[in-house]
Please model this.
Amino acid sequence: MPRKVFFSFHYAPDSWRASKVRQMGVIEGDQPLSDNDWETVTSGGDAAIKRWIDSQLTGKSCAIVLIGSSTADRKWINYEIESAWNAGKGLLGIHIHNLKDRVETQSAKGSNPFAKFTGGSGSSTRSLSSLVNVYDPPFAESTMVYGHIKANIESWVEAAIRVRT
Model:
C-alpha cells in the first residue's frame, strides 16, 4: 500500500509541475484544493491556514517539498517544513524546475528550502539541509525528469522516513 504523503509547493508557478508528480500514482498524496476552497481557507487568516496545513499533515508519514525556482523562503512552505519536522515526519525535497509547465516551459533551479532550518538537539544540532535529502533529477528533458522521479520517489520517501526513525 502506498505511503500517505503531504506535498508542499509554491502554488502559482509550480502547480502544474506539482500536479504531474502528485498524479504519478506511486504514492498517495493529499487532495488538491480548488481555487475557491483555498480562498475560503485563506479568508480565515493565518490561524485558519495553519489549522488547514496541520490537518493535511495529520495521518501522513512524510512531507515532500517540490522545489521550484521560488520555493525557498515562502511563508507557508516554511511553516509546512517546520511542522513536518517537529511532528517527526519524513521530509525530503525534489527539484521540479526541469518539468515543463502547462505552456511547455521549464524554470530556473531554486534554492534549498531546508538551509535556513536546524534539527537535532544539543551539540548535534545541524542545518536541515544536511539532514534532509534533496533530489535533483540529472536530466534536462522533462520526460526524463518525470521518469526519474516516478522511478525513485517511493524509495526516496522510505529513506526520508528511515531518517526520522
Q: What stands out?
A: The first strand starts at residue 4 and ends at 8. The chain has one domain: 4-164.
